[in-house]
Specification:
It is an enzyme of class 1 (oxidoreductase). The protein is an alpha+beta fold. It has 4 domains: 122 residues, Uridine Diphospho-n-acetylenolpyruvylglucosamine Reductase, domain 2 (2-Layer Sandwich), CATH 3.30.43.10; 117 residues, Uridine Diphospho-n-acetylenolpyruvylglucosamine Reductase, domain 3 (2-Layer Sandwich), CATH 3.30.465; 110 residues, Alpha-Beta Plaits (2-Layer Sandwich); 101 residues, Alpha-Beta Plaits. Helices cover 35% and strands 20% of the residues. The strands form 5 sheets. The chain has a 7-stranded antiparallel sheet with strand order 17-14-16-15-19-20-18, with helices on both faces. A 5-stranded antiparallel sheet has the order 7-8-12-10-11. Helix 1 packs antiparallel against helix 3, helix 8 packs across helix 10 and helix 15 packs across helix 16.
């Protein structure tokens, strides 16, 4: 494997207003300039941008836990797989890094540019290319938002069930193998991708497999690229499975005196085989944040609260709501509300839907929110939440807990003063401690956000050097110059 030089990456705290440090280094080298000129000659001036604001938007994110003193040197706006292939050929020729960009909503600096390079923005690749309703699948480009996809195909009676944050787009969802509130019923992104069209580092275009629902032909290249965060190739087309829209959907909200009581109820619901569509938990702090932000049209009790979704036949939904209510009573539940109409369902689910936005809305001048996730075996979820909450309280941090309690995945959102180095250090310690606890409990450092820049050391701790070296070998075979989103997931050997 060819070794690459890695520049020192200077991590800087944000200033609380979304402004990036003016000392960012994104001056183009001679090779960069030649590549940009060649690409502009091929595609036109408007396809390749070097505008300062454009570079800033593609190298910095207020959502990210880490921002760095480096921006891309240019942003490309391809319109087809063929154009992405041409871009890759030129970048490969001049050894320029390539960073795919779709929604820009990732949380672990997944689209940052620690080595400069070319950000490849799929804004103009946002089409639903083909809907095969009888086959229950759809072919899309990477910049299609998942919510827009569901809106476009709603008349078919089908939907795409993976539901991360509302700003996520399919390309980024593939990159991190994300999930969302529906994961307890429908699983994660990798379960819903049939095949991918991928542009490799040298511009070669491959398709990972054909379109049937199942295939045992050769290596599972589809799942190799899903979750690879653009480090192995650039995904330009995605074929997704679809599910049938349930006849009936309803929501229930139930309060508990403690997180442990709620987790015990969740475990019983799962063990009873009740097919809930979603099962989420928010702690007392997060419920208070919802109230303070005023982002819903009601006041909520500021206690640990579980949010359930039910879907199926009308009779099945009614039966499952009653079963969950009965189980909840055995675990000290308080109020149990369930929606009798679709509008009531939207109102009850609104607190869950607005959780992160509410945390962002109550920031004071100079405040930032660090949001990160881990996942553990379901039986250990109350342990890690209780210990993590105690540490945050002991450090005097304002932090909330939100969890996909049905699959052991939870998120910490910690508010801190970005201008206070001690407070930033306390947050970093809290996050690292939470990750270490998850690993000690046979969990993972991330359930759905991905590794990006932020969790590379944790990934090595989780998997071990030998496993990381296997990943490096795969990366080196497909991308010998380490041009594809370099610096993410793992580094080249020093």
């Amino acid at each position: 494997m060819e070794e690459v030089d890695r520049p020192a990456v200077c991590f800087k705290a944000r200033d609380g207003k979304g402004a990036f440090s003016k000392c960012c280094n994104h001056n183009a080298s001679t090779d960069d300039g030649q590549a940009i000129a060649e690409l502009r000659a091929a595609f036109g001036e408007d396809t390749i941008s070097t505008d300062d604001e454009d570079l800033h938007r593609h190298g910095y994110s207020e959502w990210s836990s880490i921002n760095i003193d480096q921006l891309p040197v240019a942003v490309a706006y391809p319109k087809s797989t063929e154009e992405v292939s041409q871009l890759a050929q030129v970048c490969h020729k001049y050894k320029i890094p390539m960073i795919p960009y779709s929604g820009g909503s990732s949380l672990e600096a997944n689209f940052s540019a620690p080595f400069g390079g070319m950000s490849i923005d799929f804004t103009f690749m946002d089409q639903v290319l083909a809907l095969h309703a009888d086959d229950m699948d759809v072919v899309v480009q990477p910049s299609v938002p998942w919510m827009s996809l569901n809106d476009q195909i709603k008349d078919s009676g089908l939907f795409f069930p993976v539901d991360p944050g509302p700003s996520a787009r399919i390309g980024g969802m593939v990159g991190t193998s994300c999930s969302g509130t529906n994961a307890v019923r429908y699983g994660t992104m990798k379960e819903w991708v049939i095949n991918l069209t991928v542009v490799l580092a040298d511009g070669t275009v491959i398709k990972t497999r054909k379109r049937p629902r199942k295939s045992s032909a050769g290596y599972n290249l589809t799942n190799l690229f899903v979750g690879s965060e653009g480090t192995l190739g650039i995904v330009t087309e995605i074929t997704l499975k679809l599910a049938v829209v349930p006849q009936e959907t309803s929501v229930a909200v139930v309060t508990f005196p403690t997180i442990r009581d709620a987790a015990a109820a969740a475990s019983k619901v799962l063990r009873a085989g009740i097919p809930v569509a979603a099962m989420e938990i928010m702690d007392d702090v997060q419920m208070g944040v919802i109230n303070k932000a005023g982002s819903t049209n009601r006041k909520w009790k500021e206690v640990p609260t579980m949010f359930f979704k039910f879907s199926g036949t009308k009779a099945g939904v009614r039966e499952n709501i009653q079963l969950v209510k009965d189980i909840s009573k055995l675990h000290k539940s308080g109020n149990f509300e369930f929606a009798k109409t679709a509008e009531e369902g939207k109102q009850l689910w609104s607190a869950r839907k607005e959780s992160l936005w509410s945390m962002m809305a109550i920031r004071r001048e100079g405040d930032e929110v660090w949001s990160t996730d881990v996942a553990v075996p379901i039986s250990r979820l109350p342990d890690i939440i209780e210990i993590s909450k105690k540490e945050m309280d002991d450090l005097g941090l304002f932090a909330s807990i939100l969890g996909h309690i049905g699959d052991g995945n939870f998120h910490e959102s910690i508010m801190y003063n970005s201008k206070d180095p001690k407070e930033r250090a306390a947050v970093e310690k809290c996050v690292l401690d939470m990750v270490d606890r998850a690993l000690e409990m046979e969990g993972t450092c991330t359930g759905e956000h991905g590794i990006g820049l932020g969790k590379k050391a944790s990934l090595q701790k989780e998997l071990g050097v030998d496993t990381i070296n296997v990943m490096r070998s795969i990366k080196g075979a497909l991308d010998p110059y380490w041009l594809m989103n370099p610096g993410k997931i793992m580094d080249a050997k020093a």
